[in-house]
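Hello forum,

I keep getting stuck at the same step: I have a sequence, I want structure tokens, and every attempt I make locally crashes halfway through. Rather than fight my setup again tonight, could one of you with a working pipeline run this one for me? It's a single chain of 449 residues.
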Amino acid sequence: MFFKGHHSSTTKQIKQYSDVVSLKMIPAEMRFVSSDFTNLVCGICFEICNKPRQCKDGHLFCYECIQQQIEHNPSCPLCRTEITLENIGRNLVAEKQAENLLVWCRYHFELGENEEWFVSEMGCNEALLSINLAAHEKQCAYAWTSCPYSEKCGKIRKKNRSEHESECVFRTIQCDFCYCLVQLSMINEHQRECKAGPVQCKYCDEEMTRGNLASHEVDNCLEFNIDCPYECAEKVKRKDLKQHHKDFVAEHLDYMRDNIHQKHNLELTERDDRIRELNLKVDILNKKIQALSEGALIQWKIKWKNIEDENYVQESFWFEDVNLTIWLYPNGDTLESNGFISLFIFYEHDVPENEFSFFHKNDRQVTKKEYIKKLKYYFEIVNFQDGLQNIRSGDILFSLYPNRGVSLMKGERKMISHDLISKETGFLNEEGELFINLHLDHTKTSIIL
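Reply #2:
Ran it on my machine without issues. Output:
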């Protein structure tokens, strides 16, 4: 049997020789009724020996204590004699003496707030032979247990548990309506709001569960005031609705006629708006088809957040023998166009190195300086949301030679308001990109005479 305890004077030694002793265990001098037990104290844990074993010089130890000692250091901790599990012997006299010691039940004592043990007036008063102690303590009515409902109740004597459970403020009881378990302190509040609790309709006095009350009033209660489906000014009890229809049949027919007329007009308006929208899209598609069939489509894709605060950005490309550059001003290129997107085409032309001649229809020869080129362009800012497009078009006329005096830029200063560029308006896609399309006709040769 284990009768763990300690002596305050040997605390340092206990920590040194044993890792199983607890400083909160009941001291041996309190546990034993008789004080004649000192010759049975283990030389390692300083408690009454459990399964006593002794070294060659007769020093007593618990079997478990000396086993751990041998694993750590195979020598007697008191006389340093070499020991093994084979050469340590049982001490039958010590075993017999230990078994016949009178010991207080551990629940005879209680641990105080100052971590000191004292004899409890409410504890067990049984003193037993050590051989019978374990069986008693296993079933002792004074053993400590805990409340099954809350840790806040602290420790409870086993014999008092049933009484405590019946009075515990944290215990759960079954709701009379929904049968779920609810803490006692909250049962009244729960039952006041329980969906399964009985209530009475304030209009018709019919009884039902609280969970069905709202739907009953809205859908079924005959005494509940409802709106007339024909939008009469007054409310009508559900039970009187049929009679109300009979009394106001002429007014209801007028309402139905007006309502149908309004719906018809609305449908016509929506139809016309849809037709206009589709016609606009068709016109846009036709212009795109024409541009694609006659020339080229250049699409410029730009991350708007990267350029919206810039003065301008540009992108260059070649179309046949013409070097074109698109210039985009996010906030206009002048004070007049501030707050608008400005778009321009700047262009350069390769001057041919070889001489050449053209002839007019009357066979008159035309010089090189009289030869010009003409491009047709369409600027378009794409809208991804409702098909609303911004298209500007124009002609580019220029000579093969810069001294012809033709302007080097074309475009639109007020293409679209800067503030309209967003995902919400449809001018930016989900990635925040602005799409600018430039449609170009094929180069056409003209002669200026």
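The chain is about 25% helix and 30% strand. If your local run keeps crashing, start a new thread with the error log.
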